[in-house]
Amino acid sequence: MTDRRRINGPPSGTRPAVFAASLNSASNIATGRPQRQRQPNELRKIFLKTGLIPSASGSSYLEYEPSASLAAARSSPKCLIPPSSALKLACTVHGPKPLPRSATFSPNLVLTTHVKYAPFAARKRKGHIRDASERDLGVHLETALRGVIVAERWPKSGLDITITILEAEDDRWWGDAPDSHDAPWGIMNVLAGCITAASAAISDARIDCLDLIAGGVAAIVADESEDVEAKPKLMLDTDPAEHRVILSACVVAYMPARDEITEIWLKGDSSKALLGTDYKRSGHEALLDGAVDAARGAHSVLAEAVRESAVRFAGLAPGGGVMQ
Amino acid sequence: MAPAAAAAAQPAPPSLSLPPSQFARLQPHAYLLAHLSPPPSSNQPSIRANGRAPSQFRVTSANTGSLTHTNGSAVVRLGDTTAVCGVRAEILHTEDIASWSVSRPTPASSSPTGNKRRKLTDSTAKLSAESENKEEDGDDESQIQDFSLLVPNLSLSTGCAPGFIPGAPPSALAQSLSHQILTLLHSTRLVRAEDLRIWYQPPNLGPEELERHNENEQMDVDAPQGEVDLEKNKEIKAFWVLYIDIMIISLAGNPFDAAWAAVLAALRDTKLARAWWDVDNEMVVCSDAVSEARKLSLRGLPISSTFCVFEADAASGWRAVVIPDAEEEKELDDSTRKGIQRRWVLADPDGYEEGLSQERICVVVDKEQDGKGKTVIMKLEKNGGWAVDTKELKTLVDISAQRWEDLKQILEQC
Amino acid sequence: MVGPTASLTPLSRADGSASYQCPSTGSNILGSVNAPIELPGRRDALRPEDATVEVFVKPGTAPGGVGERYVEGIIKNMLTKLILGREKGYARRGVVITLAIVGGESVGRGDSYLTLLPALLHTALLALLSASVPLSMTFSATVLAVDASGKITREPSPKEAATATSLHVFAFSSNGHLLLSESQGPFEFKTWENVHQRALAICHGTLARSSDGDVAMAEDVDGQPLEGALREVVEDKIHLDYAWKIDAP
């Protein structure tokens, strides 16, 4: 099957490079897993900037700080296999614009979300056509945002939110066998990033919102060696590559000013996970609270980025009064 | 144009005055024209609406190697146009190529497919004489084209501009840009086929090896003889295929220059792991040591510059009677030199200017011997009008050569 | 040198059509033009006072790909400037040009369309004339190959094109403007100027100025100028169509 609208590679297909190190797994791989250097409740730094894409009505660019192991690998490269990766994405908002004539009447703003990975975003090359997980992300993002936007202010209008992921989070450490974790955990971090970036872009486009919505991730991990005694721990803003077993993870879209959640996505089994004695609540409650805490952290970055956008807007339009 | 001129000339009542941003939207042509031809009394220089001189390019910046999962990557910003390019290398086993056993090149004689691309050999051999003399010759360069080893794709469905629907198949513009990049990669022969080959040297057995060993010792100086012997058993087991994906993150005019600069910067950044044929596993295996990986050795540094022509008369081209023929055109040109200028050639047009012009010129130039030699044109394209003829093209080639110097510095610093 | 052969209106259902063969490049193109027609997906916001020109190129053997989109863009860009889309009956309507590559070598992946481009342009022009679409001027085009020794080959065969150092396509209007120039492969500007001169001679004949300032078109090594050859095709067709009127006393 060739795609006539793109340039195709060799008809027989190609194979990703196989590294010798991953073939003889037993030997040197155990030492290679990146270790989490942050405290359990310490978040990664977020770089968030608005207004980089002038042709869009609103835009933002988000980047996570590389983990300690990745930063080390960058500064003194030894191994071609990156230990982990850090989220990088660009978000644009087009609209509000009139709906196409063929569309049915809508009294509210019609929100369209679109999330696409760049072909080079993940460890495995992504196709050009959206796959199930990308569509899934789009749906989650839409639910998260629909609760924030004051949609009835723009009847018969549409708003397109497009996110291009330039670099995604890993689902697991590359040295682990592909089926050692049951779920792709990286997608949850991606969703949290998408929510925060989209919120900044929507504010940059000056769409009325109830609050700035931020995404946050928390996970319960059973880590540190094969010690049976070790209790599973709650970690905020987990990088899946840094953990051997993630029991369950949760991403929320949270509005701090109203203390409301518009989207929860919880994966894995949190009921059986017995946290240490210092946790008084059951697994999933702790997980939710953790994710909310992470979202609060992202919110402070978000607020700063939006303030910057507002300053730029005020500076750009000195004759704003003339323009009505 | 008439109402615009009137608005500019007479002191209109305050209710009719428009801020510049609105004027630019309502009367784009008059707006740009007013900038380019200010009234002689005002003593203002002719300048574009975006503040640039006609032959001035936008501020360009490049940044490479920031994407983790790529073999090479680059972000190029050309004013407000941003292109991200990632190069991913994958492996194509020769046993997977249907035509491989037929077209298999024997090292002694050049393959039948090898002749096809010989065309460019002589000229580019001169072009980068020093770097190429160690290579036997580019007659197997056709493998890049025959086996589709370079796969560039450009995507505009990233929300980069309002007109492109995300998720839709590539627009005609995206397709034609992808094609232009592929054609330019082939015609400039930027990537060497040798860099993409993964060789396998079967272990030598018995007396033959001894013999060769002796030979080598005897003819220490005269190496080529020994090398030919060595080559006899060597076979290509696989090729690297470079997937070159370009995402235009932000589009504000001139996507081709930005995309090509991004491709060039990303290829310059590309590292390929050392790969060998593993007999036990019957597959190609790579080493993960950075020290063993090598960079691509590219041929030259072709750099593209795009221009557009802005006509003072918005109606030129459809009022059939007024089109002067080429001879008259030249005379007209000379006579009006001192007076009113009729058209401007604008370098590196932004989106606003692209919308107001039809004639496009794209020049891709390279300079021999790393900038010291003479300027070589790799591609010259002009269509959509008749304003630009030989004389103008010569000027544009000179501007492009100047641009080459600037961009070379930018690419080398990143 | 064997000149190109062409015929006007071989298709009866289209508003205008033409077929064109160039023996030296081996290209054989069949083109049709429908104009003015109502376009289904017409957008009012886009230049409401002008006609929309659409070009489709269909390769003979394989389904169309990115290369076709590219060459369509070139042809469209050039013809948009020549078609008088603001004439009565054309504004907001469409001019649809379909060019099918009937014979000759197909263009491979990532190959340039340069060898086929003049034939495509000529077919489009003849089909437009056959459909009586108003044009500001006519044009003629040619492709030239320069090999490593600097020898210029006019309208090279696919084999010659493959061994050439650089390929150049030129189109000149009937008024002598340079309408299109597409060149690829390493070359210097001086080479381009030489090729440009030669192309001008092929399309328009050598310009010979006699002492009294008369400008005459003379034939030379390149035989009849292309401009004239195309004109003759149209004249012949008109003569044939109006034979009843001319021959009638």
Fraction in beta strands of chain A: 15-25%
Number of strands of chain B: 14
Helix content of chain A: 25-40%
Total count of domains of chain A = 1
By CATH reckoning, the class of chain A would read: Alpha Beta
Rounded radius of gyration of chain B (Å): 27 Å
The pair of chains with the biggest contact is: A-B, 60 and 68 residues
| Helix-strand topology string of chain B | HHHEEEHHHHEHHEHHEHEEEEEHEHEEH
Number of helices of chain A: 6
Helix- and strand-based class of chain B?
alpha+beta
Q: Would you tell me which CATH topology of the largest domain in chain B applies?
A: Ribosomal Protein S5, domain 2
Mean pLDDT of chain A: 85
Query: Average pLDDT of chain B, to the nearest integer?
Result: 80
Q: Please state the second-level CATH architecture of the largest domain in chain B.
A: 2-Layer Sandwich
SS summary, helix count of chain B: 15
Distance between the termini of chain B: 46 Å
CATH class of the largest domain in chain B: Alpha Beta
Write the layout of secondary structure elements.
The complex is a heterotrimer of chains A (324), B (414) and C (249).
Chain A: E1 15-16, H1 20-23, H2 25-28, E2 46-50, E3 58-64, H3 68-75, E4 88-98, E5 110-117, H4 132-146, E6 157-167, H5 186-204, E7 214-222, E8 233-236, E9 245-255, E10 260-268, H6 283-316
Parallel strand pairs in A: 5-6
Antiparallel strand pairs in A: 2-3, 3-4, 4-6, 7-8, 7-9, 9-10
Helix pairs in contact in A: 4-5, 5-6
Chain B: H1 2-9, H2 20-26, H3 28-36, E1 60-64, E2 72-78, E3 81-93, H4 100-103, H5 121-127, H6 129-132, H7 142-146, E4 150-155, H8 172-188, H9 193-196, E5 197-200, H10 206-218, H11 223-233, E6 235-250, H12 255-269, E7 271-272, E8 275-278, E9 283-286, E10 294-295, E11 303-311, H13 326-335, E12 343-347, H14 351-354, E13 360-367, E14 375-383, H15 390-413
Parallel strand pairs in B: 4-6
Antiparallel strand pairs in B: 1-2, 2-3, 3-6, 5-6, 7-10, 8-9, 11-12, 11-13, 13-14
Chain C: E1 5-8, E2 16-22, E3 27-37, E4 52-58, H1 66-82, E5 94-103, H2 117-130, E6 139-146, E7 152-154, H3 158-163, E8 166-173, E9 178-187, H4 189-204, E10 206-209, E11 215-218, H5 226-241, H6 243-247
Parallel strand pairs in C: 4-5
Antiparallel strand pairs in C: 1-2, 2-3, 3-5, 6-7, 6-8, 8-9, 10-11
Protein name (chain C): Exosome complex subunit Rrp46
Organism (chain C): Aspergillus coremiiformis
GO molecular function, one term (chain C): RNA binding
